[in-house]
Amino acid sequence: MTEHFPPPSPETSAASATAASRDDGDDRPPPARLAYDAHTWKEIAYLLTNLPMALVGFVYVATVLFTSAFLTVTVIGFPLLAAGLMGARQLGKAERARARALLGLRIDEPSPLPLRARGGHGGGGVFGQLWMALKDPVGWRTVLYDCIRLPWGVLTFTLTLTSLFVLWPVLPFIARGLANADRAMVRGLLSPSDELERRIAELESDRGVVVDTAAADLRRIERDLHDGAQARLVALAMGLGLAKEKLLEDPDAAAAMVEEAHGEVKLALQELRDLARGIHPAVLTDRGLDAALSAVASRCTVPVKVTVDLAERPAEAIEGIAYFTVSELLQNVSKHSAATSASVEVWRSGDRLLIQVGDNGHGGARLDGGSGLRGLAERLDAVDGLFVVDSPEGGPTLVTAELPWRDRPRG
Q1: In the prediction, which pLDDT does 118 show?
Q2: Domains of the chain by range and CATH?
Q3: What is the 3-state secondary structure (H, E, C) of 279-291?
């Protein structure tokens, strides 16, 4: 027996289509209609709350900007402006929450400001953080949003309230049009800056880290040359000069002085080799990370197991950063950990070079502990790397570093 069902009515089909679009994750509101459904009432509520929210935002922004501009001649003007921009971020967060609840607008939160500045034009520390807050694009877009919202809030509040008593039949159409304009404003000014703005700000800061690190390395090389090999060469020149003067008067004393100078030459050469190895070790250039890290491990005060699983070599810059990262971590093991054994593992995972250095010492290593870990974290961050320290009190310690894998250019 065959059963016949009546075809769905146009109203049923429209409702099914609307429900299907909602289920598919579409945040667009249904088309405006004369019926006062729940969505329409939410839009009306949003439009009626525009005015009080716009008043709060405008008064806050006007107070912050006026006060900050007036006090810029003092030391508190710019910090006050930075704090005001951070407060504006919170106003933007409240507006996004209101739009999500009443307009059904799906909008993500912007990336937070970095917890610390990593250099750049503003420098580091407090001044770097202040500079990051002052140039925060999210804060400034929220300020612009709050500045233009007051006249719009007055307009939408007046039209909606009047329509409730005068234009009741067409109020859903009016509410939909005004709410769509609000959606456009929220999307345009309060949406995340995609990740582009955040990455630009990070790259500007990272550029400062690279410059600062290079300057610090140059100062270290200059200091090592001045205090080490250069001092020995000066002493060697003076010794050879004295030996020359005694060559005819006292040949035996001159011979002894030449012998002593010969020893100074050997020491100066060794210091120059050590310095060159600190800049870029020859074994790393010639034989890669496996041999270079094995050489570093042999100089550690505790036994170190080195495992390098790389089918090919990364770019020279990445290879050098990996080498110096492991070198400094093993120096920390020797100086601070009181460990009896350590391990180094290096491998490739997709487009990342992974490094893990562990020891069985007493733990307690922290990025702010003065052991050079913070500098390593900043150096890796400057090349889009990661640096994670897991070191509970009592140990063990495991440090994980990630670097981007960049293929070595073929020549």
Answers
A1: 40
A2: 27-193 (no CATH), 208-279 (1.20.5), 283-404 (3.30.565.10)
A3: HCCHHHHHHCHHH
Q: Which two tokens stand for residue 270?
A: 């060794």
Q: Which of these, 394, 387, 401, lies nearest to 355 by C-alpha position?
A: 401
Q: How far apart are CA 90 and CA 112, in angstroms?
A: 11
Closest CA to 197 of 279, 114, 276, 122: 114
CB burial class (10 A; 0-12, 13-18, 19+) of residue 410? exposed
Tokens 């006050």 sit at which residue? 80
pLDDT tens readout for residues 245-256: 877 778 888 788
Residues 132 and 352: their CA atoms lie apart, in Å, by 29
Place of tokens 């020491």: 267
Separation CA 89–CA 110 (nearest Å): 9
Nearest CA to 62 out of 36, 41, 86, 88 is that of 88
Which residues in the chain show pLDDT less than 50? 1-26, 32-33, 115-124
CA distance 17 to 129: 50
CA distance 45 to 178: 12
> Which residue, among 190, 177, 189, has the nearest Cα to 43 in the 3D structure?
177
The identity of residue 32, as a single letter, is A
By the 8 A CB rule, do 329 and 357 touch?
Answer: yes
Q: Model-level pTM?
A: 0.44
At CB < 8 A and 24+ separation, what contacts does 371-380 make? 371/332, 371/335, 371/336, 372/328, 372/332, 373/332, 373/399, 375/213, 376/325, 376/328, 376/329, 376/401, 378/118, 378/119, 378/209, 378/213, 379/209, 379/213, 379/321, 379/325, 380/321, 380/325
Q: Among candidates 405, 392, 304, 291, which has minimal Cα distance to 351?
A: 405
Q: Provide the β-strand partners of residue 348.
A: 353
